[in-house]
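# step 3/5: fold
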Amino acid sequence: MRLQVIHDSKGKTTGVYIPINEWNDLKKQYKDLEVLEYEEPSKEQILSEIKEALVQLKMVEQGKLKARSAKDLLNEL
């Protein structure tokens, strides 16, 4: 395996680079690794979620939906 260790400007190790073909081989061998991958949401997904939030906000303003506390909202994030 050809790993590259990544260091910051102070020499502290901050990460490891694994070539994609080796990462794919590791995922085949260890199925649990797939959950570690993060996929950026698309612009469309972000806009859809913002629109949904605005719909819910209007419903709260109209009294059709109960508002959540800021604490509950932050816990969800």
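# step 4/5: annotate
The two ends are 36 Å apart (CA to CA).
# step 5/5: archive (pending)
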